Amino acid sequence: MERNWAGNLTYRATRLETPTSIDELRQLVAETPRIRALGSRHSFSDVADTPAVLVSLAELPGTVTVDGDRVTVPAATSYGDLAATLHTHGRALPNLASLPHISVAGGVATGTHGSGDRNGCLATSVAALDVVGADGRLTRISRDDPEFAGSVVALGALGVVVSVVLDTVPAFDLRQTVYPRVPWRAVLAGFDELMAAGHSVSLFTDWAGENLRQIWVKSTGEPPADLFGVAPATTALHMIPGESTDAVTAQLGVPGPWLDRLPHFRLDHKPSSGDELQSEYLLPRDRAPEALRRLRALAGRIAPVLHVTEIRSVAADDLWLSGAHGRETIAVHFTWRNLPAQVAALLPAVEAALLTLDARPHWGKVFATGDLAGRYPRWSEFRALRRDRDPDGRFTNPFLTRLGLV
C-alpha cells in the first residue's frame, strides 16, 4: 500500500481511489462508509490514514484561477506550483512553509505555517473552501459562515476539500541572510528583538554548545548588518551539516521574488534531509524563553537523535484547531534522524518539558501525547461541529478517535 514521504508510515487503507471528476468523487463519498482524503503524503503522523478507503485528488480537473486579490486553487496543488502561477499575475501569498512541495489543502487542514511575527499560519489566508460533505453534496463554506473558523484547520474530519479560495497580496521581493553561530545568551536576552528582525526569522540549533547553528532572516528591506555582533555568512549554508546547498533557496542578501526566498528549499530539489522524522510544538510566546531553557537542559539526549531544530514565530488567529489559536506563538520544530524507536523513547521527555508550558503539537508531525482537549478553547465546539457535519462518522479515523474528537 501507499507510504508517506518519510517512509515511517504505511497507510492501512484497503484501497486507494483516484476520481477524475467532482461527480465521481461525490458519488464515491456518498457510497463509502469510511473514507479519508490523502494529500501530498508529507504528514509524519497518521492524520490522513484510515483502515478503509483513501482518496487522492491528484487527478481531479481544475486550474489555479486568479481573480483580483483572490485565487481559487484545486486542493492537490502544491504551494510551489501555486506560487509560480500567482507570481505571473503579480500576486503573492504573505507567507509560505519551509517546504513548497506540500499540497494547499493538506497544509491548510493541519495548520501548517511559516514564520514571522505578523504572519499567521497558511490557513489564515483562506477565504472559502469547497467541500464534499458526508452526504456527497458539494458545499462552499465562506468566511462569513459562523462555522468557518471551525472548518478550516479541520484535519479532514468534516469532508473532502476539493478547492480552496485564498486571499493574496501584491508580489514582493525578499532578501535572505544567514547568520552563523549566534550566542544563546544573546538570543535569550534579546529574543523579541531578534524575532522581529525580518519578515520571517528562523533559528536553527542542535541544542549543544553555547551558540545556535544559524539564524535565517528573510527581509523586505535591508537585512540587519549583524545579529548581536555576528556578521552574515559569506557563503550559502544548509541548516543540516553535510547536505547540499543546491537544495536551499538563495541567500547572501541577494534580493529576489518572494516565492524564491520564503521557502527554505527549492521546489525542484530534495527538501530537508529527506531521511527523517519530524515533531513540532507550538507554545504561547511568553512561555518560549522558559521552553528553550528546558530544551537546552535536554541537549545531551536530544542532539544524538537530531538533524536540526527550527524555532519560528507565528501570529495569533481565531481558527479553532490552529496551533496559534488565540495567542501569539513560538513554534519549536524538530527534524529527527530516521530512528523511530529512539525518537519514540525521547518524545515523552521533550513533551514533559513543553506540555506544562501549554504547548500544542503540530497535527501532521510525530507526537506522543493524546491529552489535547484542554489546550484548545473551542475543542468541544469542534467535536459538536464534526458530529453535526458527519453524524455517521464517514470521515473518522484512528487518529481522530485516539484524540477524542469522535
Automatic annotation (TrEMBL):
One of its GO terms (cellular component) is membrane. InterPro entries: ALO_C, FAD-bd_PCMH, FAD-bd_PCMH-like_sf, FAD-bd_PCMH_sub1, FAD-bd_PCMH_sub2, FAD_lactone_oxidase-like, Oxid_FAD_bind_N, Vanillyl_alc_oxidase_C-sub2. Pfam families: ALO, FAD_binding_4. Residues 9-171 form the FAD-binding PCMH-type domain. GO terms for molecular function: D-arabinono-1,4-lactone oxidase activity; FAD binding; L-gulono-1,4-lactone dehydrogenase activity. Keywords: Oxidoreductase. PANTHER family: D-ARABINONO-1,4-LACTONE OXIDASE, L-GULONOLACTONE OXIDASE. This is FAD-binding PCMH-type domain-containing protein. The lineage of its organism: Bacteria, Bacillati, Actinomycetota, Actinomycetes, Pseudonocardiales.
